[in-house]
Design a protein that fits this description.
Layout: H1 22-37, H2 53-56, H3 73-77, H4 98-104, H5 129-133, H6 137-146, H7 155-167, E1 196-199, E2 250-254, E3 273-277, E4 282-283, H8 285-290, H9 299-306, H10 311-316, H11 323-336, H12 352-367, H13 389-395, H14 399-409, H15 431-444, E5 445-446, E6 450-459, E7 478-486, E8 489-495, H16 502-505, H17 511-520, E9 529-531, H18 539-546, E10 553-558, H19 577-583, E11 587-593, E12 602-607, E13 611-616, E14 624-633, E15 638-647, H20 648-656, H21 659-669, H22 683-708, H23 716-728, H24 730-736, H25 762-767, E16 807-808, H26 817-822, E17 831-834, E18 839-842, E19 847-849, E20 860-862, E21 867-873, H27 878-890, E22 893-900, H28 909-913, E23 920-924, H29 926-929, H30 932-938, H31 943-964, E24 972-974, H32 986-999, E25 1007-1013, H33 1021-1043, E26 1051-1055, E27 1067-1071, E28 1075-1077, E29 1097-1101, E30 1113-1116, H34 1117-1127, H35 1144-1159, E31 1163-1167, E32 1172-1176, E33 1180-1182, H36 1202-1210, E34 1214-1218, E35 1226-1230, H37 1239-1244, E36 1263-1267
Parallel strand pairs: 6-9, 9-10, 21-22, 21-24, 22-23, 25-26, 25-36, 27-36, 29-31
Antiparallel strand pairs: 1-11, 2-3, 4-5, 6-7, 7-8, 10-13, 11-12, 12-13, 14-15, 16-17, 17-18, 19-20, 27-30, 28-32, 32-33, 33-35, 34-35
Helix pairs in contact: 6-7, 9-22, 11-12, 12-23, 15-22, 21-22, 23-24, 32-33, 34-35
Length: 1268
C-alpha cells in the first residue's frame, strides 16, 4: 500500500495521517506501549496547542472554549472532553493504533482495529460537498477512518479535513469498517438498555401573545426591524408534568418583630428562631456567634474570619492558613535567603501586622488605583496626586523599603518543607491558602436550593506552562479553576491544573466532570439544583450527578451534537432568512424513560435566532410564561413595561446560572492586582484567592444584615475602603470608625442597647441627646412580673453597664408606662424613652416626690424634671461621690433610697448629707425591709443567699415605696452596687498571679516596686495578718531579679500614706492588689506584636469598658500622673456639688484620656491581650470579666480554658458556679488548700520572661510598678 501525503487545509504541516511501513509502525507501537506502562511521574509532558476561539466554539453557544486542564493531564488522565464530540489525544502526521489510543484516552464509540484492511484495491469514492456539510460527527469520523486519515479534533476540523481529502482524491482503503449506526431513541453510554427517549407532543392550541397596546411593533434587540411584524406561533406542553424531589435544606431563622428587629427572651437573652426551608443561601449564624459578628461589626472583623490573622482563629475554622503563619514562613524564607547579610543588609524581621499592612496596600490600590502601589506610601506633600497621608502614617518610615522586603520574601508555603512533585501538586506555593479557602467557605455558607458551576479565571501576563491563552474573555490569559457559587459567594473551587480526583476517574467520568463531582462533595443537603453552561452539560453527566450521594439536579444549555441530544429534539441552524422565520419559536422536547437512575431527564430545544439545546433535571413544566421588562418605547418616547413570552425552564436558567459571574464581577470591581504585573506566577492565584475571600466576607455581611432585619448596608466600595484603612492603619481607623453599638449579638446575654449619647464629652452628652427614632421596637410593659429583679423582663434596669439616659419619644402614640401602671391614666404628651429598658415615661413641669414614713420633713417639690433611684451599698463609699454627682446632673436625680448592707464597716451618711439640699435621700437598714422574724430566720443562711434575698426584698420594697408615695409618675432607675472586701484572701488567690504574670515577665527591666495599700478596722485578726503577705512581695521580687541576673529592685511599701520617691521614673505602671492576672503583662507591650520601647503610649485594658476600663494603666510617667491625680480629685474643684466629679469610668473617658493625650502628648491605646479578673471572698474568681461588648473573651484568653488557667496558677482545684438564675455570669470557687510562694520555690523554678528588648533600646530607662 502506498503512503499517502495529504495536507490539512487549516495548517501548512502534514496534519493528515501518513501510513508508515510495517517496521516503522511496529516501532511506533512499541514506544506508545512503553509510554502507557510508565507511571504518571515518568510520562514526559507534552505541549498542547492553545485552542482558538473559533475552534473552541464550533456551535456559537460556548462561553469558555475549555478543552481540559493543562500540562500533562492529556497523558495522565486522558481526554478532557465529557462527550463524544471532542476527540482525545491530538496527533500530527502519524496514525496511532486504536488499541493503544484506547489505553491513553477511551474513545466513546466501538471501533475496529485500524490494522485490519480489506483485500480489495483502494478506490476513490466521491461525496458531494452539501452531503459533507450535513454529516454528523460519527459520519465524519467514519469517512476519515476508511481513508486512513486522522479522525481526531473538533467537528469543523474534521469536516475541512474530509473536504480536503475529497479534493485530493484520497482513496478508500478500508472496507470492513462499518459505520456506527445509533438505534432510534437510544439514550447512549452509561444508561441501561431499557432506557429510551420519548418524544413529547406539543399542544395543538397555540399560546396567545401578550398585548402591548402602547407598542406598535415590539421586537427583541436580536430581531431585525423588517421582521418585527412576524409573530411566531408558540405551543405549550401542558399534557406533561414532571415530579422533582424537593430540596431538603433548612436553617434556624431569626424571628423578627413587626419593626423588623430580632425577637429574644429578655430573661435569658436567647434569640427566638424557627426552622425554615433554606431556599436562599445564608451566612451561618452559629459561626457568626462564635466570632462575635453582628451587622455593626467592622469589615475587617468579617474578613478576619475568612483570612484569619492568628493561628488560633484558623484552627477554630479548621483552616490551614493565617497571616501569623504566613508571616512566620516569610521571615523564615528571608533568613534562609541570608537577608540582613548577603542581601538587604538592613532587613529586620517583620511582624504579622506589618505583612498584613503591605497586603492591605493592594486593597487600597484596588479601590483607588495608582500606577504603582508605592506611590500610595508617599505623603501628599511629596506626591500631591497619588500620595496618601493616611497610608504614609500607617506604614511609617521606610515604607518603600519594607515593601520591597514584602515582595521579596512574602510566602504562602512553609519554605522548610520539600515541595511535592508537580504532577501531584502543581500549585504547591499557594496550596495552603487554596485548601484554607475550601475549608472555611464550606463552613461559613449554608447553600440554598439553586447554585451554579462555571470557570473562574486568574489573570496572569507572565510565562508559565500552566497559563492558558484566553482571547474570548475580558480577563485575558491566565489560570483557571472550576467554581461552585451562589449569589456571589464562592463555596468551593477546584484548580484545573490540579489532577482530577481519582475517585471519579475510576468510575469512568472525564477529568472535567470528576472535578465538578468533587465540588458537589461539600454539599450538606440533597437535591440542590445546579446550573451550568454547555462546556459541562451532557446526558451522561446528568445521570452521574443524580446518582451522586447528594443527588444533585443539574440543568443548562448544551451543545447541539455529541452531548446525547436525541434526533427528535435536534434542530439544525438555518442560514436563509426565510427558513429562519419558518422555524422561529419552535420547541421540541423528549424525556428519558425506562431508567430509574435518571428519572425524567428532559432534552429540549428552542429556536430563537439560533437553536438553543437544553438538558434539565429540574424542569417541572414545559410552557411559555409571561415576562415583563421596562423598555424605552420609541413610539411614545417613554420608558414603559413590555410583556413578552419566554420558556419557563429557560427563564429559570437565566435567573440561576449567573452566580459565578456575580462573584467574578464583585471580585473584579476592585481587584487587588490592578496595575500589577506579576513576575511571580503564584501571586496571580494568591491575589485571586484573597479577592475571593474578601468578596465572600462582603456577601456574608449582607446576608447577616438581612437576617437581623437591617436595611441600611455598606456598599461594596465602602466595605473595601474600610477594610483597606483598617489593615493599613488600624489606630486611625478605629478613631474614625469607633466600635458600633445598638445591634443585638447572638451571645446568650441580653443584647446591648444603643447609647443615648456618645461618651466623648459630658457637656455635649447633656446638651444634645441622640434621637430616639431608632428605638422602634415595642415597649416593655411595667408590671409586677416584669419588675422582678431576677427573672423579670425589666431586670436590665439594674445593670449599670448600660446607659439609662432618656431621649424624646417621637411616636405620637407613645404613652407613659409608669402612669398606666400606677394610676391607669393615659398620658401621651411630654413622653421620653429609655432605649435600654424600652420603657416610655412622662416628664412634667412639677414633680412631687414623697419621702418614706420615717421622714419627718415635709415633702420636697422640685420645679424641674427629675428621677428617682434605689441604691444598695456596702463600703466603698468613696465611689458614691462620683456616682451622686453624675446622676444628679445627668438624669437629674432628685429622689434616692439607700440601703446599707448589715456587714458594712463604714457608713455613707457623711457623703449623703452633702446632698440633702439637692435631693431627698432616705437611708435604710435591714430592719426597714425585714420583720424581726425574718431577720431571725435569715441568720442561718449562707452569705450568698443572704445577699440575694436582701437584693430582692429591697428592690420590691423600694419600688413599692416610690410607687405609693406619689400620684404623679416618675421614671425610676434602680441602680445596684455591691463591693466585697478582698484583702482577706490576697495571699491565697491574688498573690500567685501577681508573681507569675506581673513580677516575672517584667524582671528583665530596670524597675522598682511601690506597694500602696489601705486598711480598715476589722473584728477578724486574719485581716491584719495579710499585711505580712504584702511585705513578702518585696522579698519575692528580689529572688525573681536574682534569677534573671538583675540587681534587686527598690521596694517601697506604704499604708494609707502619700508615696514619695527619690528616683525619676521614665515609665510607671499601676496594678490592683485584689485582681487575679490571667496572662503575663509586659509593661512595654502595646499589643501582641508591638513593643513601646520608645515610651510613647499609654496602655489600658480592652475589656470592661464602661465606657473605658480604669482599673489598670502603664505609660510614660507624665500620663500616669494625670491618671492618678485626677482619680484622687487633686485637680478637680470640689467646692461645688457640680464639680464633685463623675463615675470613675466615665470620668476616665471624658476627662482623663483627653487630658493625657493633650498634656502628656501620648496616645492612649487598648491592649486586647491583657486580662485580669475581679476576686471575691472565699477564694472566688469572676472569670467572665475579660469579655468584649458581645460577651466573648478578649484576644488574650480567647482560645484558653480559663478554668484550667486559674487552676494552674493557684495550684488547686476550682469549680464553676452561676451567679444568677440567668446563667449569664459565672464565678470560680477554689478549694481551701494553701499555695505558698516561697523564696525556695522561686529559686528552683526558672522564670521565663518575654524576650529581652532589642540591643538598640536604652535599657537603662528606669520604670516602676505600683501595686495598690
Amino acid at each position: 500500500m502506498d503512503s499517502l501525503n495529504q495536507k490539512d487545509s487549516n495548517t501548512s504541516d502534514h496534519e493528515a495521517a501518513v501510513l508508515p511501513s510495517p517496521q516503522k509502525l511496529e516501532k511506533v507501537t512499541d514506544k506508545l506501549v512503553e509510554r502507557v506502562n510508565k507511571s504518571p511521574e515518568q510520562v514526559k509532558r507534552r505541549k498542547i496547542k492553545n485552542i482558538t476561539e473559533e475552534e473552541a466554539n464550533p456551535d456559537g453557544y460556548d462561553s469558555d472554549g475549555e478543552a481540559g486542564p493543562f500540562f500533562d493531564v492529556w497523558d495522565i488522565e486522558g481526554t478532557q472532553d465529557p462527550d463524544e464530540e471532542v476527540s482525545a489525544l491530538p496527533t500530527e502526521g502519524t496514525v496511532v493504533p486504536e488499541a493503544i489510543l484506547n489505553t491513553l484516552s477511551p474513545v466513546p464509540v466501538a471501533i475496529q482495529n485500524s490494522e485490519a484492511t480489506n483485500n480489495k484495491e483502494p478506490v476513490f469514492i466521491p461525496i458531494a460537498v452539501d452531503e459533507v456539510e450535513k454529516m454528523f460527527m460519527n459520519d465524519l469520523k467514519h469517512e476519515l477512518k476508511i481513508r486512513n486519515l486522522s479522525y481526531q479534533g473538533k467537528k469543523d476540523a474534521l469536516r475541512k479535513r474530509l473536504l480536503k481529502a475529497l479534493e485530493d482524491q484520497v482513496k478508500v482503503c478500508k472496507f470492513d469498517i462499518k459505520p456506527i449506526v445509533k438505534k432510534k431513541n437510544e439514550v447512549g453510554t452509561g444508561f441501561p438498555d431499557t432506557a429510551f427517549w420519548k418524544e413529547l407532543q406539543a399542544d395543538e392550541k397555540p399560546v396567545s401573545e401578550p398585548k402591548n397596546k402602547r407598542f406598535k411593533l415590539p421586537r427583541a434587540p436580536t430581531i431585525e426591524a423588517r421582521d418585527a411584524s412576524f409573530v411566531p406561533t408558540k405551543h405549550n406542553f401542558s399534557a406533561y408534568t414532571f415530579e422533582r424531589p424537593k430540596f431538603e435544606g433548612q436553617y434556624k431563622q431569626l424571628q423578627l418583630d413587626r419593626f423588623g428587629k430580632p425577637k429574644y427572651i429578655h430573661r435569658t437573652g436567647h434569640f427566638l428562631t424557627q426552622e425554615t426551608e433554606r431556599l436562599k443561601g445564608v451566612f451561618d449564624l452559629d459561626l457568626a456567634k462564635s466570632f462575635n459578628l453582628t451587622p455593626n461589626s467592622h469589615p475587617h472583623e468579617f474578613v478576619d474570619m475568612f483570612l484569619p490573622f492568628t493561628k488560633s482563629k484558623a484552627k477554630k475554622l479548621k483552616g490551614c492558613w493565617s497571616f501569623e503563619e504566613a508571616a512566620d514562613w516569610s521571615n523564615c524564607k528571608a533568613i534562609l535567603a541570608k537577608a540582613g547579610e548577603r542581601i538587604y543588609p538592613d532587613w529586620d524581621r517583620m511582624t504579622t501586622e506589618e505583612y498584613r499592612k503591605h497586603l492591605g496596600l493592594y486593597i487600597f490600590n484596588g479601590v483607588s488605583p495608582s500606577p504603582s502601589v508605592l506611590k500610595k506610601v508617599r505623603p501628599q506633600a511629596v506626591d500631591a496626586v497619588h500620595g496618601n497621608d493616611f497610608v504614609a502614617r500607617g506604614l511609617g518610615a521606610n515604607a518603600a523599603l519594607k515593601h520591597r522586603y514584602f515582595k521579596a520574601f512574602w510566602s504562602m508555603q512553609d519554605p522548610c518543607i520539600a515541595p511535592l512533585e508537580r504532577s501531584e501538586s502543581p500549585n504547591w506555593k499557594v496550596q495552603p491558602l487554596l485548601d484554607h479557602m475550601n475549608a472555611v467557605n464550606k463552613r461559613a455558607w449554608m447553600p440554598g436550593a439553586d447554585l451554579s458551576v462555571d470557570e473562574m479565571t486568574m489573570r496572569f501576563k507572565g510565562k508559565h506552562k500552566d497559563k492558558r491563552r484566553i482571547t474570548y474573555k475580558r480577563e485575558g490569559d491566565g489560570f483557571q479553576a472550576d467554581a461552585l457559587c451562589e449569589d456571589g459567594f464562592t463555596i468551593q473551587v477546584y484548580m484545573r491544573n490540579h489532577p482530577a480526583p481519582k475517585k471519579y476517574l475510576k468510575q469512568g467520568a472525564s477529568p472535567l466532570h470528576s472535578r465538578v463531582l468533587a465540588l458537589f462533595d461539600v454539599l450538606q443537603d440533597k437535591h440542590h439544583r445546579v446550573g451550568m453552561d454547555n462546556l459541562y452539560n451532557n446526558v451522561s453527566f446528568c445521570r452521574r450527578s443524580y446518582n451522586h450521594p447528594k443527588c444533585v439536579l443539574v440543568h443548562g444549555v448544551t451543545r447541539k451534537s455529541g452531548r446525547g441530544i436525541p434526533e427528535c429534539v435536534f434542530q439544525r441552524e438555518e442560514i436563509k432568512r426565510v427558513d429562519q422565520l419558518k422555524v422561529r419559536g419552535t420547541v421540541k422536547a423528549a424525556v428519558v424513560m425506562g431508567d430509574p437512575g435518571c428519572p425524567n431527564l428532559i432534552a429540549s430545544s428552542v429556536y430563537d435566532t439560533k437553536p438553543v439545546h437544553y438538558l434539565s433535571m429540574v424542569t417541572e413544566e414545559l410552557k411559555w410564561i409571561i415576562k415583563e421588562r421596562s423598555v424605552y418605547n420609541v413610539d411614545t418616547e417613554e420608558v414603559e413595561v413590555l410583556q413578552f413570552l419566554r420558556m419557563g425552564h429557560i427563564d429559570k436558567y437565566n435567573n440561576t446560572m449567573g452566580h459565578v459571574d456575580v462573584a467574578d464581577q464583585l471580585r473584579g470591581s476592585y481587584r487587588l492586582d490592578a496595575k500589577v504585573r506579576n513576575l511571580k506566577w503564584w501571586w496571580s492565584p494568591m491575589f485571586w484567592a484573597v479577592g475571593v475571600q474578601i468578596t465572600n466576607a462582603y456577601v456574608a455581611y449582607k446576608s447577616l444584615c438581612k437576617q437581623y432585619g437591617k436595611t441600611k448596608l455598606m456598599s461594596h466600595l465602602e466595605f473595601r475602603e474600610r477594610l483597606a484603612m483598617a489593615w493599613v492603619n488600624m489606630p486611625e481607623y478605629m478613631e474614625k470608625y469607633p466600635v458600633a453599638t445598638g445591634v443585638p449579638s447572638l451571645a446568650n446575654t441580653p443584647p446591648p442597647r444603643e447609647l443615648a449619647f456618645s461618651p466623648i464629652s459630658l457637656a455635649s452628652a447633656l446638651g444634645s441627646p441622640a434621637d430616639s427614632t431608632s428605638s422602634t421596637s415595642r415597649s416593655t410593659s411595667i408590671e409586677e412580673r416584669t419588675l422582678d429583679p431576677v427573672q423579670g423582663a425589666l431586670k436590665i434596669r439594674l445593670d449599670t453597664t448600660y446607659s439609662h439616659l432618656h431621649v424624646p419619644k417621637t411616636t405620637s402614640r407613645a404613652r407613659c408606662g409608669l402612669h398606666r401602671w400606677c394610676t391607669g391614666e393615659q398620658h401621651y404628651s411630654n413622653v421620653v424613652y429609655c432605649p435600654t429598658c424600652r420603657v416610655p415615661s412622662l416628664l412634667e413641669s412639677q414633680i412631687v416626690v414623697s419621702a418614706t414614713e420615717k421622714d419627718v420633713n415635709p415633702i420636697k417639690v422640685h420645679n424641674e424634671d427629675s428621677f428617682s433611684a434605689c441604691l444598695l451599698v456596702m463600703d466603698d463609699n468613696h465611689r458614691r461621690i462620683g456616682w451622686l454627682a453624675y446622676h444628679h446632673f445627668a438624669l437629674p436625680l432628685r429622689r434616692l433610697i439607700v440601703m446599707v448592707d448589715s456587714r458594712s464597716k463604714t457608713s455613707p451618711l457623711p457623703i449623703l448629707q452633702r446632698w440633702e439640699k439637692y435631693m431627698t435621700i432616705d437611708l435604710w437598714h435591714d430592719n426597714d425591709v425585714f420583720s424581726k422574724q425574718e431577720l431571725d430566720d435569715r441568720s442561718h443562711e449562707n452569705t450568698i443567699k443572704l445577699h440575694r434575698s436582701r437584693q430582692h426584698a429591697f428592690n420590691v420594697k423600694c419600688m413599692q415605696t416610690l410607687k405609693g408615695s406619689s400620684s404623679n409618675c416618675r421614671a425610676t432607675t434602680l441602680q445596684f452596687e455591691f463591693l466585697w472586701t478582698t484583702k482577706k484572701f490576697l495571699k491565697a488567690i491574688s498573690l500567685p498571679s501577681i508573681v507569675k504574670n506581673i513580677l516575672i515577665p517584667n524582671a528583665k527591666y530596670n524597675w522598682n516596686i511601690v506597694i500602696h495599700y489601705g486598711t480598715l478596722p476589722s473584728a477578724n485578726e486574719d485581716d491584719i495578718s495579710n499585711t505580712d503577705t504584702i511585705h513578702n512581695l518585696g522579698e519575692i521580687s528580689k529572688v525573681i531579679a536574682a534569677n534573671v541576673g538583675k540587681s534587686p529592685p527598690s521596694v517601697i511599701i506604704k499604708d494609707d500614706e502619700k508615696v514619695e520617691s527619690e528616683f525619676e521614673y521614665g515609665r510607671v505602671t499601676f496594678f490592683r492588689l485584689d485582681a487575679f492576672y490571667a496572662v503575663p503583662v509586659d509593661i512595654f507591650k502595646v499589643d501582641k506584636d508591638t513593643f513601646d520601647y520608645g515610651n510613647r503610649y499609654a496602655v489600658i485594658p480592652a475589656f470592661g469598658k464602661y465606657p473605658v476600663n480604669d482599673q489598670m494603666i502603664y505609660s510614660p510617667t507624665e500620663a500616669v500622673k494625670i491618671w492618678a491625680m485626677t482619680r484622687r480629685n487633686d485637680i478637680i474643684d470640689t467646692s461645688e456639688p457640680g464639680s464633685i466629679g463623675l463615675a470613675s469610668a466615665q470620668l476616665m473617658a471624658d476627662v482623663i484620656v483627653p487630658t493625657i493625650m493633650d498634656k502628656a502628648a501620648c496616645n492612649v491605646v487598648k491592649n486586647p491581650d491583657v486580662c485580669f479578673y475581679r476576686t471575691r471572698a472565699s477564694d472566688v474568681v469572676l472569670i467572665n470579666d475579660c469579655s468584649d461588648e458581645q460577651g466573648a473573651p478578649v484576644r488574650g484568653v480567647q482560645d484558653i480554658d480559663q478554668v484550667e488557667l486559674v487552676e494552674n496558677i493557684v495550684q488547686r482545684k476550682c469549680t464553676k458556679a452561676c451567679i444568677d438564675a440567668g446563667d449569664e455570669e459565672e464565678e470560680l470557687h477554689c478549694d481551701k488548700s494553701s499555695w505558698a510562694v516561697s523564696s525556695r520555690f522561686l529559686q528552683t523554678s526558672s522564670p521565663a520572661p518575654a524576650p529581652a528588648p532589642p540591643s538598640n533600646v536604652d535599657t537603662t530607662l528606669l520604670s516602676t510598678i505600683t501595686v495598690s
